[in-house]
TrEMBL record:
GO molecular function, one term: carbohydrate binding
SUPFAM superfamilies linked to this entry: C-type lectin-like
Membrane topology: Single-pass type II membrane protein
InterPro entries cross-referenced by the UniProt entry: C-type_lectin-like (IPR001304), C-type_lectin-like/link_sf (IPR016186), C-type_lectin/matrix_domain (IPR050828), CD209-like_CTLD (IPR033989), CTDL_fold (IPR016187)
Membrane-spanning segments: 38-61
Name of the protein in question: Immune-related
Keyword Transmembrane: yes
Any one annotated GO CC term: plasma membrane
Location of this chain's protein in the cell: Cell membrane
Predominant localisation class: membrane
Top-level taxon of origin: Eukaryota
Keywords for the protein's UniProt record, in alphabetical order: Coiled coil, Lectin, Membrane, Transmembrane, Transmembrane helix
C-alpha cells in the first residue's frame, strides 16, 4: 500500500507536475495572445492613422481642387477684365473721334476747327513766301480754299487782308495752290465789282513785276473776296492743317 501510496503520491506529484506543467503551458499560450492583442491594437491604430491620413489627404486634395478651380475662375476674371479694358479703350477712342469730328478739341492751341480741318490766323505779318514757309513749320500750309463754306468761314474770321495759298509766280495768269493744284475756275472768289473792276488785275503800278500772290481782301479792309497782291508785301496769313484723328 505504501508503494501504492507512494505511487499515488507519485501519481499525485506527477499529476501536480503535469497540472503545473499544463499551467505553465497555459501561461506560455497566454503570452502570444497578449502579443496578438497588442499587434491588433497597433494594427487598429495604424488603420485609424492611415484612414485619418487618407481623410486628411482627401481634404487637402479637395481643397487643392477648390483652389485650382478658383484660380481658374480668377484667370477667367482676369481675362474678362482685360477684354473689358480693351473694349473701354476702344469706346473712348470712338468717342474721341466723334468729339473730334464735331468739336474743336482736335486742333492745337490757337488753331480753330472747321469742317474737319484746323485753321491758324497769324498775328504777325510776313511776305507771301515767308508766310508759306511759316505755315509749314507750324505743321500745315497756307490755306487752300475749296468751297463756299470754307470761304465764308475765313472771311468771318478776318478783319484785315490775309495771305492765302494761291499764286501765279511761275506762269503769269496761271494760278496754282500751294499743293500744286491749279485753281478751279468754278470755285474762285476774285472780286468782281459792278463798275467793271476785277481781280486779279496784275496791277503793276507799285512794282513792275506785277501781283503774283493772292490774298483774302485788300488793304482797304474788305475781306470777303480775293485780290492779287505784291508777294513782297507783309500781311497776316491763314494756315490750314488736317485735324488730328
Ligand atoms: C467658377 O465659375 C463658374 C462659372 O464661370 C461657376 O459655375 C463656379 O461655381 C465657379 N467656381 C468657383 C469655385 O468659384
Ligand atoms: C468731348 O468734348 C467735350 C467738350 O469739347 C469734353 O468736355 C469731353 O471731355 C470730350 N470727351 C472725350 C471723351 O474726349
Ligand atoms: C471744279 O469744281 C467743280 C465743282 O465742284 C467740279 O465739278 C469740277 O470737276 C472741278 N474741276 C476740276 C478740274 O477739278
Ligand atoms: C502782268 O504783268 C507783268 C509785268 O508787267 C506782265 O509781264 C504780264 O504779262 C502781265 N500778265 C497779265 C495776265 O496781264
Ligand atoms: C520775303 O522775306 C524774306 C526774308 O525777309 C526774303 O528773303 C524774301 O526774298 C522775301 N520774299 C519776297 C517774295 O519778297
Amino acid at each position: 500500500m505504501d508503494a501504492i501510496y507512494e505511487n499515488s503520491a507519485y501519481i499525485r506529484s506527477r499529476a501536480d507536475a503535469s497540472r503545473r506543467s499544463s499551467q505553465s503551458k497555459g501561461q506560455a499560450k497566454a503570452a502570444p495572445c497578449k502579443r496578438t492583442k497588442v499587434l491588433l491594437i497597433v494594427l487598429c491604430v495604424s488603420v485609424v492613422l492611415v484612414f485619418g491620413g487618407l481623410c486628411l489627404l482627401g481634404v487637402l486634395y479637395s481643397n487643392f481642387l477648390h483652389e485650382m478651380s478658383q484660380d481658374m475662375n480668377n484667370t477667367n476674371y482676369e481675362m474678362e477684365l482685360e477684354a473689358l479694358k480693351t473694349q473701354n479703350k476702344e469706346t473712348l477712342r470712338k468717342l474721341n473721334r466723334l468729339n473730334e469730328s464735331t468739336g474743336c478739341a482736335v486742333c492745337a492751341v490757337n488753331w480753330i476747327h472747321f469742317g474737319g480741318k484746323c485753321y491758324y490766323f497769324s498775328t504777325v505779318k510776313m511776305n507771301w513766301t515767308r508766310s508759306r514757309d511759316h505755315c509749314v513749320t507750324l505743321g500745315g500750309h497756307l490755306v487752300i480754299i475749296n468751297n463756299n463754306a470754307e470761304q465764308d468761314f475765313l472771311t468771318s474770321n478776318v478783319k484785315i487782308t490775309h495771305w492765302i495759298g494761291l499764286n501765279d509766280i511761275d506762269i503769269e495768269g496761271r494760278w496754282v495752290w500751294v499743293n500744286n493744284q491749279p485753281l478751279n475756275d468754278s470755285i474762285e472768289f476774285w472780286i468782281k465789282r459792278e463798275n467793271g473792276v476785277r481781280e486779279p488785275d496784275n496791277w503793276t503800278k507799285d512794282h513792275p513785276a506785277g501781283e503774283d500772290c493772292a490774298s483774302l481782301g485788300h488793304p482797304a479792309g474788305e475781306t470777303d473776296f480775293w485780290t492779287d497782291a505784291f508777294c513782297f508785301k507783309e500781311k497776316r496769313f491763314v494756315c490750314e492743317a488736317p485735324a488730328s484723328v
